[in-house]
Amino acid sequence: MKYYRKEYPELNDIVYGHVSRITKTHIWVELTDYNDIPGMIIIADATIRKKRKSYCLMKINKNYPLVIKSITNGGKDINLSHRYVTKEESKSFLKNHDNYKKVLRIFRSFLNSQKKEFTDEYFNEMADKTIWNVKKEELLDYITEYYLGNNNLENFDLSEEEKSNFKESIQKSFGKLKINTKYKFTLKNPNFNGIDDIISIFNKIKEKYDTDVLINTAPQYYLDITSESETSNTELINKIEQDIESMSKENKCLYKLTELTTTNNL
Q: How is 183-238 classified by DSSP, letter by letter?
């Protein structure tokens, strides 16, 4: 099955090669992301031992990041190199490749929700409307932002119902979304029995919003709000902050917002 829209890689692309055969002069590989089309590495372009230059460190049935040295004859003759892929390039490629495979698992789950059994033609048709319209290095972040509610898959040619099904497939892979917002502030009351006023404010917040104000070290306090929506968290925090600020003025307390951070479990 095709991983990408284009049929063949391009010069200087880094690809995944599965070693199928090793001879004294050449290594034969299959490009797993391009329908296993064949490629070749001359032994000098493989990783070899310095003391025993005839001994190749690459192994049969192993996958390696390889760089395209040349591609001729309409893609039928592909020459690659392993030794010229740097550690940094290899690390970056493997991370992006793993991320892309995560997206493919989600995408196939989505296709299964549309059709219990689907053909390669259907995969290509739907991929052409969706995942192939975003750079593969950016694709996982793109669908994650959709799951977080920060875009509406504008680059995907899907109906709203199909987008909803796609989101369900993301949830199956990622797990239930949890957005945590931490609201930190300081609250002081230098007046006599001022601590009673602060306790009263916190009790009113608890009663109204069913959430506890927690303490770091007085006068530093915070609230932890968790839901499936950053917007919902922000709206609730804004209401609580307005109430705390208002009650602080009424009780002649010194209030200051110190930090507002949002994280998620993805």
A: EEEEEE--STTHHHHHHHHHHHHHHHHS-PPEESSTTEEEEEEEES-HHHHHHHHH
